[in-house]
């Protein structure tokens, strides 16, 4: 109750619309799991904080070219059902020109922020409460994308969450 009062007091809705420019904190339901966008932003591989997010890339993954950028989407998820559920590992970002971007796989053994598809007990969360990702500055698991710089001209971006058993994916508008 206090949390919802706080959200109302600061002018935010508990479940903002997809098109809301204040998109951090958006909740969507997908396959019995509630997903929340913690934050999304361009990452600078040379900054101290951001360099930690780009660890665990597949061997041979090239750095972004001058026409590309790293983009991090940090999510939190909770199983809202009374049955075990699996959080999805299938996400895409689509820009207004229809360009589709898929996350770069990260090794969770080398990157404690990496989003992992895991089975959640009822009321359990991903990332789990006692993890680096949950207690870090973003408080979410990382989906890392390599985007073309043209996305700045092709906004807004939409994150699609493809969950098992859903006819169409859940959507979150991303602010870039």
Can you tell me about this structure?
With 176 residues, the protein is mainly beta. It has a single domain, classed as Immunoglobulin-like, CATH 2.60.40. The protein contains 3 helices and 11 strands; from the N terminus they run H-E-E-H-E-E-E-E-E-E-H-E-E-E. Strands 1, 2, 3, 8 and 9 form a 5-stranded antiparallel β-sheet that branches. Strands 6-5-10-11 form a 4-stranded antiparallel β-sheet, with no helix packed on it. It is globular. The relative contact order is 0.23.
Q: What is the arithmetic mean of pLDDT?
A: 88
**CATH fold name:** Immunoglobulin-like
Note the beta-strand portion: 25-35%
Level-2 CATH architecture: Sandwich
Please report the first level of CATH classification, the CATH class: Mainly Beta
Radius of gyration over C-alpha positions, nearest whole angstrom: 16 Å
Give helix % range.
10-25%
How many angstroms separate the termini?
A: 31 Å
Topology of helices and strands:
Elements: H1 2-9, E1 27-30, E2 33-43, H2 48-53, E3 68-79, E4 85-86, E5 91-94, E6 100-101, E7 119-120, E8 125-126, H3 132-135, E9 141-148, E10 157-161, E11 170-174
Antiparallel strand pairs: 1-2, 2-3, 3-8, 3-9, 4-7, 5-6, 5-10, 10-11
